[in-house]
Amino acid sequence: MVRVCSAEKKKRAIPHRLISGPEQRHTNCVAGEFLWRSAAAAAMTVTAGSRPVWQPNSESSACEKCRRHFTLVFRRHHCRGCGKVVCDKCSEHRVILPESYNYGPSKQRVCDTCYVTLVAIEYQLGLEQGKVVPPDYPAIRTDLLRRVNSYLSLPEIGWGSEGDHNGVKVSMRSIESSPVSCIRSKMLIKAPIKKVMEVYSNMDVWRNWNPYVSSRTVEQVDGTSKVMTAVYEFPVIDKRDSCFFTSIMDSSTVEALEDHKGLTVAAISVDHPLCPVEKGMVRSDMHISLSLLEPVDDGIYTHFTSIVHSDPKGLLPPFVINAFLSRGSDHLRGMAKFIEAKLQS
């Protein structure tokens, strides 16, 4: 539960690493510094000690977060934390606001930015007071590397025949004691590895070819590692989310890739105090998400290999899950087209 009440708590600073990437869902703003200023402004507004003046409806024809225009069916809402006019999608969270807001003990609607800010404040206070146990990142890194080497060491004979999906070679294999298959996708992207990483590492850009996925940074652990959460809103099935630790590594530092050049991006599911399971959401289990980027033809091309073993959980039967996961080639092909088009523009 998020609750920030005392005057002392209101004055506390929020570590930059906790809200350095409060990427709101459905946002069109991807500049990190802008996001930092937005979160800092939200922190000052929400913890200032008084209920904000609501932005008049007449002053905003579109959501202040996603910029989607309001209609008779796409309605306005006010964030009780900052007073801004937002849409329902950008204000799905409910929290208990400071006592000085005079809303009482009931939870109030807040925008994504205010929610991330308040949760970060509570997390920092919990750390200082010893009430919150932070993730054991050394142990998580060890587990991540163990899984990376384990999946990269799987014998080639276990992978099924590669099917060509419009330039993406896809193969599947079963994993012992797992009802879902492991998917491997390969593709050659006509772009230098640096350009590919610029796009691949920025999940906000993914919405250009995959509108069903949105994400935000939960905690920036260091320069190459962070904890993120992603929401998957696919048609028909229940919404899924994941909370995962992801790290970028030089491929030569990975035991199973010591002779390789390029970069390796790996991720596994983790638990984090800032990322609780929300009502109505199914938490998926990411056993491994592994991406290998290798320069080809003097760096003109990048060979991209993706290995994903993830269980979306819920009540979906395994054969439906496996059929759905095999469509991951659409995501990789969409990313490649976006990168190549960006280079040509």
Automatic annotation (TrEMBL):
On whether Ubl conjugation is a keyword of this UniProt record, the answer is no
Tell me the ranges covered by the FYVE-type domain, including all copies. 57-119
Q: Gene3D superfamilies, from UniProt? A: 3.30.530.20, Zinc/RING finger domain, C3HC4 (zinc finger) (3.30.40.10)
| Key word DNA-binding present | no
Its signal peptide is: none
Chain segments annotated as transmembrane: none
Q: Name one GO molecular function term.
A: zinc ion binding
Q: Where is the START domain?
A: 158-328
Keywords recorded for this protein, A-Z: Metal-binding, Zinc, Zinc-finger
Q: Which Pfam families match?
A: FYVE, START
Name of this protein: FYVE-type domain-containing protein
In its UniProt entry, the species of origin is given as Riccia fluitans
